[in-house]
Amino acid sequence: MLRRVRRRPSPARAALVGAVGPARSVLADALSFLASAVLLWRMRVPETATVPRARTSLARDIADGVRYVAWEPTIRTVIAALSTLSFGLGP
């Protein structure tokens, strides 16, 4: 079953639609996505050599991830805030 999600229009969106009309505002939105895609495509990322690693179990990988999140204060704070937000804004 699909639910419809209602979004409140932002003032910036409303101003753009009011200034140029709905069709041109959708075109502007599409062009902004196109510009983002082109800029991401043009990014140069240095290639790194991959070192084959030993096979580990899924449980060990999960434990390593939890340990890393618990050790990094910035990531720990972000995860805690997002978890609290997602539980607070649940269905």
Task: Give the gist of this structure.
With 91 residues, the chain is an all-alpha fold. The protein is built from four helices and no strands.
Structure description:
- By secondary structure, the protein is mainly α.
- The protein is 67% helix and 0% strand.
- The protein has 4 helices and no strands.
- It has helices at residues 11-20, 22-42, 58-71, 73-88.
- The longest helix has 21 residues, at 22-42.
The assigned structural class equals mainly alpha
Order of helices and strands: HHHH
Rounded to an integer in angstroms, the radius of gyration calculated over CA atoms is 22 Å
Helix fraction by DSSP (H/I, runs of at least 4): 55-70%
Number of helices: 4
Task: Kindly report how far apart the N and C termini lie.
Answer: 14 Å
What global shape is seen?
Answer: flat
Give start-end ranges of low-pLDDT stretches: none
Average pLDDT over all residues: 84
Strand share of the residues?
under 5%
> Tell me about the biggest sheet?
none
Give the beta-strand count.
Answer: 0
Task: Fill in the keyword field for this structure.
mainly alpha, 67% helix, 91 residues
